[in-house]
Amino acid sequence: MTDYSAQEANLDEFVDYFNARDLEAISELLDPEVSAPFFGGNGEESVMQGVGELVLAYPGIVTTRGELGDEPVVVAWIPGQQRVYQRMGYFRFTFTEEGEGVEDPSVIDGELKIEHIDYSDEIDDGSLLVEEPDPSDMAESESWQEWEEGVS
After folding, report:
1. CATH number of the domain that residue 143 is part of
2. What is the pTM of this model?
3. d(CA 108, CA 120)
4. Burial of 97 (0-12, 13-18, 19+ CB in 10 A)
5. Alpha-carbon distance 126 to 68, whole Å?
6. What residue numbers bound the domain in which 115 lies?
7. Are 95 and 150 within 8 A, CB to CB?
8. Of 71, 107, 110, nearest to 90 (Cα)?
9. What's the structural domain count of the chain?
10. How far is CA 140 from CA 17, 32, 52, 59, in A?
11. DSSP tag of 74
12. What digits encode the pLDDT tens for the residues 15-73?
């Protein structure tokens, strides 16, 4: 069984930064050569552009933590009808190897960097345990959406 404890703090930060729309902070979690086909390919700049495009396409998107078996994942949710979030999919992460040399630029101050991100929108077989987002978090994005649509 793999020990994922070293990755937990990194994923918590990813979720916090994503939900705060702090793209600069997300970028600091990534290895410069990160690969993420869902976000547009390879390299930090390309991946960050893809993250920005996802947020623009789905302004109400939020992320939470989850587990696929014993592996930690990040789950993406979009606002649905009747103030309920709908699961969009989940992200699996690969990190730089622990114990890589200090001379390795992908390990900064002993912190792991994200080197690969996979996305899946497939319905799981029940092995995906998720933390659902709080519907009260939806209120701000809903009010902006109504304002933009001209609803009084």
Report:
1. 3.10.450.50
2. 0.80
3. 29
4. exposed
5. 9
6. 5-149
7. no
8. 71
9. 1
10. 17, 34, 19, 11
11. E
12. 999 999 999 999 999 999 999 999 998 999 999 999 999 999 999 999 999 999 888 99
